[in-house]
Amino acid sequence: MTGPSLEAPLTINWAINNSCNFACRHCYSRVDTHDELDRETLFTALEKVARAGVFSVNFGGGEPLLRRDLLEVARFASGTGLRLSMNSNGWFIDGETAAALREAGFTRVGISIDSHLPEVHDRFRGVAGSHGRAVAALGHLAAAGIATSVSTVICRINHTAIDELVAFARVHGAGQLNFHNFKCSGLGLAHKDELDLSPAEWQEFYRGALAAREREKGLDISLDDPIIALLGARDTGSLVKGSVCGKLSLNIKANGDITPCGFIPVVIGSIVRDDLRQVWRDSPVLEKMRNKKATGKCSGCSKYEECLGGCSARALALTGDLNSPDPHCWA
C-alpha cells in the first residue's frame, strides 16, 4: 500500500451540525439525519485532531451558527492551536455576531452567494431575503477584521455570469471568490438534470473563469476542480495533482464519522473511536484515491497525470466507482 506523504491532513472540513434554515436545491447534507456530537465529545475530538498535527479546521454544516455552543467550540479549538475558518449562509451574522466570531478565533468566513441577482440567489437557496442578509454579513465580517470569501456553486443558474460574479465579489470587499463545481451529491443528485451543465458547457465556463483569474488582481479566484488540467491549469492553492481529498484534507460529519470529503458518503473511520493518523495512513479507500488508475476514456489521455481522472465524488455519485472518469470531463 502506498502511504500518504503527510502524517495527517493539513485541513479538516467539519460539519458540526446538520440543521439549516435554508432549503438549497443542491445541498449534500440535507439527507444526513445522524445525531450531532455533544460539546464534551466534540472538545475531545478537537484535541485529538490538534494532537495529530492538523493545521486548520473549517466548520460547516448545516448552518454552523445554528449550533448554540459554536463560539465555545471555536474558542476551545483555537486554544488547541488550530486555525479556524467557517462556511455560512450569512443569515445570522450581524455586527455583534461578527465581532464574537473574531473573538472566538475565526480568521476567515466564507459566505455562500450563488448569484449577483438577489431573486436568483433567493430562489436557489429557498429563502426570501437571503441575498441581502448574505451581503450584509460580508460587511459585518470585514468590519470585525475577519477575512471574507464568496462561495458560489456553479450550475445552470449562474455559469454564464462570471464577470458579474467577479465584479460583485470585488464591490463587496471579498478577498477570495470560490467557484465550486456542482457535485451531484445529496439533493444535487436529485436535481442534477435541472442544475448540472454538460461537459461542453463546463469547458466553456472554465475557459472564462481561467481568463478572469488571469486578469484579476487583488481578488483570488479559486477553482477547485481537477479537470481544469485539461486547459493546462490547476487550482493555484493546491499542492497536489488531481483532487485534494484524502491527500491534503478529510471531512468529519456531525456524528464524528470520517469521510474522504463532504461529497463522498463513504465512512472510513470515527474521530470519536479511531486514531486519526492511523485512519489517514491505513484506509483502503484513501489508498485507492491516492493511487487512481486510468480507466475508460482516461486511458491514454495526455492530461491524466495532471487531473488524475477529475473529481472522485462526481465519479462515485454517477457511476458508483471512485476510479471512473469524471462525468464532467469534455475530453
UniProtKB/TrEMBL annotation:
This is Radical SAM protein. Keywords: 4Fe-4S, Iron, Iron-sulfur, Metal-binding, S-adenosyl-L-methionine. Its cofactor is [4Fe-4S] cluster. Residues 6-220 form the Radical SAM core domain. One of its GO terms (molecular function) is metal ion binding. The lineage of its organism: Bacteria, Pseudomonadati, Thermodesulfobacteriota, Desulfuromonadia, Geobacterales. It comes from the Bacteria. NCBIfam families: GeoRSP_rSAM, rSAM_more_4Fe4S. The keyword Iron applies. Gene3D superfamilies: Aldolase class I. It comes from Geobacter pickeringii.
